[in-house]
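Consider one such protein record:
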Amino acid sequence: MATILQAFQKLHPGSAKLYAGSLTTFPSGVTHDIRHLTPFSIFIDHAKGSHKWDVDGNDIIDFVMGHGALFLGHSYPALVDAVSEQVRKGTHYGASHEQELRWGRLVQELVPSAEAVRFTSSGTEATLMAIRLARAYTGRDKILKFDYHFHGWHDSVVGARFAESDIPRSVGVPAATLSNTLSIPQNDIKLVEERLAQDDVACVILEPSGASWGTLPLTEHFLADLRETTRRYGTLLIFDEVVTGFRVSSGGVQKHFGISPDLTTLAKILAGGLPGGAVVGKGDILSLIEFRDDAQWNESRRIAHPGTYNANPLSAAAGTTMLSLIGDGQFHAQADALNSKLVAGLNRVLEKKAIPGCAYGLASYFHIALGQECPRPKAGIEWPWEDGNLPARTPLPIAVALKRALLNHGVDLMGMTGGFVSGVHKEGDIDSTIDAFEAAVGEMQAEGIL
């Protein structure tokens, strides 16, 4: 009987060939870190709805969903029509246009804290701008983040999903820059308060779902405590909702939990699957980007913000259409219900096969931890907090084997141990995924991987 690796190689000869060629063009043959997979990455030919097909013709149920950007799946008809129409009208005017205004107003309608909006071209650019705004507004240099929380890859946030408080990841980042970034474990409000009491922290930035889009969830009261503490010390609170914005609810985590930050960073779903990001929040903070009838202000105090593709017509057309379609929450209800079914099914498989691990999530995203004991959700899908311990992280060899095995059975995860359910996934997709998971972990057991 073929091993998981042998089956993977047999099923994907076209991807193997293309990957060999890509090694002469791209570092490690990929254009995004998370797409790296040994012995080669999968190459996709086309996609539609909740499925995609690789260059070898394999039909794959997709839970990558454009790295979380495709809340309505691949090539949703209304989005295709909107972008196609805009291409005919023009792709870049080099000027203001009505579509960007419609887009910005929809963001204001949906996101509770969005008094003002500034568009960027990506999530990384959004967090960069949010941090610069916070420093300018407070007159302070230092930022406080949390271990494993990801905020893009610019120098202030480094870009590695590691515990920076224990193992700094600073290759290529000047020590002077790194010295202004503080990283501490999440969920310890006393530690946050001790640091903010020194009155030199401009902002606290975090993923409000918990580290790595909820892989390591926050304790129940941490967000509310953080809001109160930052306000007391005059430190701005930034929610990085690049992943969770318009996913956890139509207004993101902040609407779901009823906690409003000073600034929010957005991307992914925001632009309907095209490139696009934004910083939104309090008007007096974003007013630091304003031009004023004051030469000194404009020359030395205003924050400059160019960007060739900021609010470009194509992204604005896709973003406006996406937000118009999902604003009423109907797609959220469908995606959340299917995700709940999926998480429950994955946990049943683990229990049936006596495999240590768990599946959990929030709204329409899920995570899988394998190879270590961890409690499973007793009701719903959220992490069952008991003593505040973090869920087990899947050892890399197990995660790689799971990724390959599920691809062999026609399922693609985001990274190696998680995924996004869209508003267009079907009951059959979920049933097939649960069956694929049972087959995959069974094969992993047979090979001694689990």
Summary: The longest strand covers residues 201-206. Residues 77-326 form a domain with the Aspartate Aminotransferase; domain 2 fold (CATH 3.40.640.10).
